[in-house]
């Protein structure tokens, strides 16, 4: 058994040997994507633990921060941007509010506005800086041109597989 971190080639070769009637070439892409997704997720999780924030709250705060001044969205917009259910947004908001990172206020009608506080903005800016630094380290094996090319290929694949519409909520 191979001890290489990239086992996809060996897996593909074994399938070709055992079932020459099949085309296992997808393994070269799919298995590597799965492996990298796990590595990237594990790295992000480890970093966020050291920064004392969980991925769900970072997603919430990052969404508000990326919305631009005045860093305010409705709960519905937050759910749409973060691809989670309204119930999941409510849970995240409760936790973020307890930390003083967001404030809720009634909007017109049934809308609720969520504001990123100064403390929330400071936190998300500090965390984003550390996350981007680490992720750029992980991608250092690729030149800027290779990164752009890979990003373009992955974007085309996402559109081809997932379609043009929004992805369904995940939580």
TrEMBL record:
Entries under Pfam families matching the protein: MarR_2 (PF12802)
SUPFAM superfamilies named among the record's database cross-references: Winged helix' DNA-binding domain (SSF46785)
Domain HTH marR-type: 26-159
Record-level Gene Ontology MF annotations: DNA-binding transcription factor activity
PROSITE patterns, sorted: HTH_MARR_2
Any single GO BP term: response to stress
InterPro entries: HTH_MarR-typ (IPR000835), MarR/SlyA-like (IPR039422), WH-like_DNA-bd_sf (IPR036388), WH_DNA-bd_sf (IPR036390)
PANTHER family: TRANSCRIPTIONAL REGULATOR, MARR FAMILY, TRANSCRIPTIONAL REGULATORY PROTEIN
Name the UniProt record assigns to this protein: MarR family transcriptional regulator
């Amino acid at each position: 058994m191979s001890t290489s971190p990239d086992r996809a080639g060996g897996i593909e070769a074994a399938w070709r040997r055992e079932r020459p009637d099949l085309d296992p070439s997808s393994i070269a892409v799919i298995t590597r994507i799965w492996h990298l997704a796990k590595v990237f997720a594990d790295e992000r999780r480890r970093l966020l633990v050291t920064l004392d924030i969980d991925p769900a709250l970072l997603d919430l705060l990052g969404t508000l921060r990326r919305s631009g001044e005045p860093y305010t969205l409705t709960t519905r917009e937050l759910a749409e941007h973060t691809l989670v259910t309204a119930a999941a947004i409510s849970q995240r908001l409760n936790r973020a509010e307890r930390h003083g990172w967001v404030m809720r206020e009634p909007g017109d009608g049934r809308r609720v506005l969520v504001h990123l506080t100064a403390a929330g903005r400071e936190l998300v800016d500090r965390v984003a800086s550390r996350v981007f630094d680490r992720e750029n380290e992980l991608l250092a094996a690729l030149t800027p041109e290779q990164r752009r090319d890979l990003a373009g290929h992955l974007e085309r694949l996402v559109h081809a597989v997932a379609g043009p519409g929004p992805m369904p909520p995940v939580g």
